[in-house]
């Protein structure tokens, strides 16, 4: 029983870390894309 809980807790930590990091990654992508497209236009 304890081993199952440990596995579930590790999975939950990974999932929450992924969900926390995901919006930041999307924000960085939005900031990078206009610069790249601006360089391509020039």
Number of helices: 1
Number of strands: 0
Helix content: over 70%
End-to-end separation: 62 Å
Q: What is the approximate shape?
A: rod-shaped
Order of SSEs, N→C? H
Assign the structural class, choosing from mainly alpha, mainly beta, alpha/beta, alpha+beta, or little secondary structure. Answer: mainly alpha
So what's the oligomer here?
single chain
Largest sheet: none
Structural Rg: 18 Å
* Average of per-residue pLDDT values: 78
Strand composition percent: under 5%
pLDDT < 50 stretches: none
Overview of this protein structure:
The chain is 95% helix and 0% strand. The protein is mostly helical. The radius of gyration is 18 Å and the shape is rod-shaped.
Short overview:
The protein is mainly alpha-helical and 42 residues long.
Features:
single chain, 42 residues, mainly alpha, 0% strand
Topology:
Layout (H helix, E strand, L loop, with lengths): L1 H40 L1
């Amino acid at each position: 029983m304890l081993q199952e809980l440990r596995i579930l807790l590790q999975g939950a930590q990974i999932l929450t870390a992924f969900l926390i990091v995901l919006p930041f990654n999307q924000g960085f992508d939005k900031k990078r894309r206009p610069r790249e497209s601006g360089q391509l236009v020039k």
